[in-house]
Amino acid sequence: MSLIKQLWLTVILILLLAFVGSLAVSVTSTQDYVEQEVQIKNADNANALALSMTQMEKDDVSIELLLSAQFDTGHYRLIELRSPQGDIMQRREAEPLDDGVPSWFVDLVRLDVSPGQAVVQDGWSQYGTLTLASQHDYAYRSLWQSTLKMTAWFALVGAISLLLAWWIVRTIRRPLLEVVSQARSISARRFTTSSEPRTLELREVVQAMNTLSGAVHTMLSEETGKLDQLRRRLQEDATTGASNRTTLLEHLQRNLESDSQRASGVLIMVRVDDLPEVNERLGRQATDAALRALVSHLAQLANELGGGEVGRLNGSDFLLVVHGAQDIEHVSESLKHQLTLLRDAVGAPLRLPAALSEYTHGDTPSQRLAALDGALADAEGRGDMALVVASGEARLPLYTTHEAWRSALIQSMDAGVALARFPVVNARQEVVHYEAPSRLELAGEWRSAGLFMPWVARLQLEDKLDLAVAERALAIIETDQLPLGINLSGRAVSDMAFIKALRQRLEHAPEAARKLWIELPESTALHDLASFRLLCRELQHTGVRIGLEHVGSEFTRLADLHDLGLAFLKFDASLVSGVDQAFDQQTILRGMATLAHSLGILAIAEGVKRPEEAETLFDLGLDAVTGPGVKAP
Prior knowledge:
Blueprint: H1 3-54, H2 60-73, E1 76-82, E2 88-93, H3 103-108, E3 116-122, E4 125-134, H4 137-187, H5 200-235, H6 245-257, E5 265-271, H7 275-282, H8 284-304, E6 308-312, E7 317-323, H9 328-346, E8 354-359, H10 365-380, E9 387-389, H11 402-415, E10 418-419, E11 422-426, E12 431-435, E13 438-442, E14 445-448, H12 449-458, H13 462-480, E15 484-487, H14 490-494, H15 496-508, H16 510-513, E16 516-521, H17 522-527, H18 529-539, E17 545-551, E18 568-571, H19 573-576, H20 583-598, E19 602-605, H21 611-619, E20 624-625
Parallel strand pairs: 8-9, 12-15, 15-16, 16-17, 17-18, 18-19, 19-20
Antiparallel strand pairs: 1-2, 1-4, 3-4, 5-7, 5-8, 6-7, 10-13, 11-12, 11-20, 13-14
Helix pairs in contact: 1-4, 4-5, 5-20, 7-8, 8-9, 13-15
């Protein structure tokens, strides 16, 4: 039985005991008092009437008149005169009163009152014995009415007491439910914090649990900080903080092969011309500061254009990968503006030639870098801040106008989305789930997401595509009973209307929802953490599993996610590539997997290309792997 029910039963039992006890004491006391008073009255009246009869003539008429007068003017139940031999000489008896008192109540509180008796004298001899009993039926009516009044009073007091008890129980129950919810969250390894209640005992419990959550947050922050330092030494340029050449080119390769908006975009290469001379003129510290400022301005440009990555290819060349389809003229103007701000901030003349090139799904990094190198050589000969756009291979677009793209995309979504299947496999060679990137039929062929996602984002059709993908995935799960993982776009995180629509669809298919895995890019979730929290809170009760993909560069913020109840993390392929031969990467991944497991989160590796990599990853403690080298059993 719950504590709340026990409290209610205790309150009700106390009220009933108080009512029954008070009623019993009241009725018993009144009953004793009435019996005593009536007993005295009977004796006094009998003695007084006997005295009067003793002093009068003893003729039958006078005696009868006196008894009748006494009976009629008082409230008597019985007046009787008997001869010394016991014969009835005179008798007056009243009928029982009909005063509306229930017979069961009369039987329960029946008054035990003896009639008064007195001797009537005739001179020195006994004339007779007088018996007198007062009418005490009025006492039953008084007792009944007082009982009703007491019952009504206790009913009022009981109602007020129950209302007060309800308020007190609700006041206690609210923080108690929060404590229960927090305990369940901690048991599920979601280390949430709660506001401290006013109740002392509950406040001490909540303080202890909040301290536990805070300790977990601190531990995660410290451990992820150590792992991030190791990752930075492995993947970043020590001077500028930009990605090193190997890491950046791996990111570019994955973008070109991906089924996301990142499959197309713009490459920007900026060169600090004659860097040795700049270093000699400004000094090492000032030169390093100028290079860090260049990286900062390129990162700011990437943020303005919707996201990207900055890397250092060599001593003087820096590459910016801007995600998504872009207007190359707008990118050029924005780049020129950032470089101008950089020169003003540095306060020294710098030669910063730059080259731009569009990339798209199917290109190779070597092709794009070769085109950029040629364009950059051309820019160096044109002046300090010359910008040259590298010409790429001529490609015939599927559609030539925005309206044509919009019409084709909407028509294809309405006709139906197809989902590919790429397995995520655990160490026992069991499929954990299938990654299911979307496919749309455009221009008579099924196209991968890398081709149409940039246009979906540009035309702001992400919510329509995401809903279509979710509906298709739920339908496949219901038919084939296969766990599927789908990607949501960045817009899904901040669009409340989309979240509500998705929640309704998941609630209508609860069995299928429990086999649906939803993942978002790490950067998308962490850059709008409040909206991501809302997404998790709205969807998790449906049974769907929510996680992050491409986890790596911002792993230090894992501590901010300890209370979200994430189901899985997919570690970025840049940490996985060649892991069987890289001790530093093994150390990072082992630590990341351990921290994920401490929160009850599955650790999954992306981009696995060789069986040796998969074997090493399982030895490091990861739960599952996926990538081009992973096949379904």
